[in-house]
Each structure stands twice: as C-alpha cells, then as structure tokens.
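Suppose a colleague, Dr. K., hands you the sequence of a protein chain of 210 amino acids and asks what its three-dimensional shape might be. Before reaching for any lab equipment, you can write down a predicted structure in token form. Begin with the sequence itself:
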Amino acid sequence: MEEELLRIFDCKRNAIGKASRHEVHRLGYWHETFHCWFVSREEGIDYIYLQIRSESKKDYPGLLDITAAGHLLATETVRDGVREVEEELGIGVSFEELVSLGVLDYSVTTGELIDKELANVYVYKCNVSFDDFVLQTEEVSGVVRAEFNQFSKLWLGDLEEILVEGFEIDKTGKRVLINKIVTKSNFVLHDQSYYVDIIHGIRKIIRDSY
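The predicted structure, expressed as tokens, is then:
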C-alpha cells in the first residue's frame, strides 16, 4: 500500500514539496494538521472534550489528546480536515459550524519522532451526549470531558491534577464508564505554548457565545 503524502513547508510556511508521513516525522518537515476541540456548556459549567488514543497507536498510545485531529494530505484543503471528526468520533459536523483559532505552529521531538506542525485549530460548540459518539477504535478508545476552568488551571500551572469523566471501549468492545483524576503526564506532549494559545482562544469564544 502506497504511503500517504503530506505537503511540506519551510520555516516561513512556504510550501516546498511533498513527503511521506514517515519522512515528514523522521526528518522534521513542517506539515499541516487539522485540530478540532469540542466544548459545551451544561447548567452554567463549560466543558472541554478529550479523546483517549487507542492503545494500538504507534505514537502516544492511551494518552488524552485533542478531541479530533489528523494530518492534511497533500491533496486536501483545510476544509477537508473536518472529515477527521466523523471518522474518529462518528459525529457529523460541517466546516461552517467550526470557529477558527488560526494556524498554530509548534515543534515537539520525542525519541525518533520530530513533529513540526502547522496546526489549523478549530472549536466546535457542541450539544452532544456520550452516547452520540461512535468511535473509530483503531484510532480512539474513548472520550472524556473536563471542566474547562479546571483544564485551564492545569495547563496554566495552577493545578496539579483534574477530574475527567466519560467512557472507554474495553478489549471486549464494551463501554466502560470513566471518572478519574489525571495529571499532565496523562496527556499527549503538545508544546506548552499550544495549550496556552488554545485556552485563551476558547475562553474568548465562550465569553462571546454564552
């Protein structure tokens, strides 16, 4: 099977060609991704939703991550990235329903993986229950949510741990409820500046929307 090709960029965001996903991460090319964060408000409390990465994933198995995210192929535009939401979570979302936080660039190196992303970041103000999620289990094993205020305090250094609640699909395919305490070590290692930027962006959206 031919490996997917990604568009690659220089440090000034100029497109310079294409490369396979393996080469992109081995050589540290800048490349485009699509990130979608789900937020909601219930009974006056704002929540942010997180996916649990499948244990079968090569990178960061079992860790908490962006609600839905993925690479943009060389043949795709940013609008095409919305497919990631339905593929991973089974939630149909139109591009017009999303609120943009712009393009955030960050670089994280873990072992032999050099991840330099131009992340097209969006927020989806959702009205969903956990029963609405139909997961692509080879990618995502569960979905949880945290109070946005607590999530913010965790990443801004004011808390060491927070509570998350939701569900995970176990090895037998059964949904298991989750209600547990997590720390930063339970999250994918995105750059600290990325978390700070999305927190400030989501705060503004929440303030302007509700």
